[in-house]
Structure formats: C-alpha cells, structure tokens
Design goal:
about 25% helix; 6 helices; alpha/beta
C-alpha cells in the first residue's frame, strides 16, 4: 500500500454513513491489499461491523486489532474485544486481544473514533495523575481517564500515538455537530487535544467520515 499512499493529506469523505465507511474499508482490502486493520471499540462501529461481516472479503488473510479496550474480562458487557469477536464470529479472521506492553506491527489502516472531549483510542486530554505517554512509551499502554466516566469506570489499554500513526492510512469516524467543530479545529491546529496531536504527527493520508448522527 505504500506506493498508493504517497502524499499525506487530510480529506473529508463526501458520504459518511455506515455503508460508506464499510465500502471504504472493503475497497482498501480488495483494491489496495490491506490486510492488517486496527478498529475502534464502543457501540458506534457495530453497525459498520455488521455491514462488513456480510461482505465477500479475504477474511482468512486478514487480522483485526482494537485501538483500545477496557481492562475487563472478555465476557464482560464492556469488553470491546468481546463485541468485536461476536461481530465477526462467522468469519475466519484473526482477532488479537490487547495486552499491556505488547508490540504491534505496522498496520494497513487505523480506524479511530473520537470523543466529544477530543480523545482518541484511550488517549484522553486528562488522565490519572502521573500518567505520561510519549513516543518512548510501550506501543500498548495502560491508561485511565480523569475523571473516570460513570458509564465506563474502567482502566483501559490503548495504542499510543506512535503506534496509531504507524500505518498506511488513517480513517476517523465521528458523529455530531460538536465533534465536527473539534475536528475542524484539529485539522487547523487550533488546539492540542489528542485528535489534533495525532493529525499533526501523522505522515499518511487521513480520511474523515463525519455525519450529524
């Protein structure tokens, strides 16, 4: 894929519904040879996973890894690994669970979501006191937002920024008008939230899929 993605740029996709995101990924897999995909957790990607799982792709050659996960058992309702495994249960795709301090290879595509506070993966604007993550940190790090959100009061495992940008292409999928403003300002470098830091550090094309809902 390196030859295809030769000039870094940030672009906004014309269509950003679940079907459009799934088509973008399928095209990368079939036309550009992508095999190693990094995907987000949470509930937003589930509709896209559902469409993808119905597509005729070389699943037995592909591998999936999460950008981040909650530090809970795989059968816990909050487990992103559990949701991802269930979404592709009928496909012979390799799904790798995150482990603290593990190494990760370069990916073909990194798909990230973004929170209303500008966080990506589980890299938050504010994390527990004393937690410092930079390019010298392990590629998979333990993180904890400060404060812990009541709907998901768990420590996390996350790709660090260096691992997130070690890819041939980045896709950002976000919903809501508040997130559009954050994304627009991030592209312009108008703040230093995690999403802006990632965009500034990336050397590959970035495609933004934003929609109102």
């Amino acid at each position: 894929m390196n030859d295809h993605f030769s000039s870094p740029a940030v672009g906004w996709a014309e269509h950003a519904d679940a079907a459009a995101v799934a088509r973008f990924i399928a095209d990368a897999v079939t036309a550009k040879g992508a095999r190693n995909l990094v995907v987000p957790g949470g509930n937003t990607p589930l509709a896209i996973f559902d469409i993808l799982s119905g597509m005729d792709l070389p699943w037995d050659e592909m591998s999936l890894m999460l950008t981040d996960d909650r530090q809970v058992s795989t059968d816990h309702p909050a487990s992103n690994f559990g949701k991802l495994s269930q979404a592709f249960a009928n496909k012979p795709v390799k799904i790798t669970r995150l482990v603290d301090h593990m190494d990760v290879p370069k990916s073909d595509i990194v798909w990230i979501g973004m929170g209303a506070d500008g966080h990506i993966a589980s890299l938050f604007p504010r994390m527990k006191e004393g937690e410092h993550i930079d390019e010298n940190s392990p590629k998979i790090v333990s993180t904890q937002p400060d404060p812990l959100p009541p709907e998901a009061p768990f420590a996390r495992l996350s790709f660090n920024q260096t691992a997130l940008i070690n890819t041939d292409a980045i896709m950002i999928v976000a919903r809501g008008s508040d997130k559009k403003t954050i994304l627009e300002e991030a592209v312009k470098g108008a703040h230093d939230l995690p999403i802006a830091k990632l965009i500034a550090a990336a050397s590959c094309p970035i495609t933004i899929f934003w929609s109102e809902s």
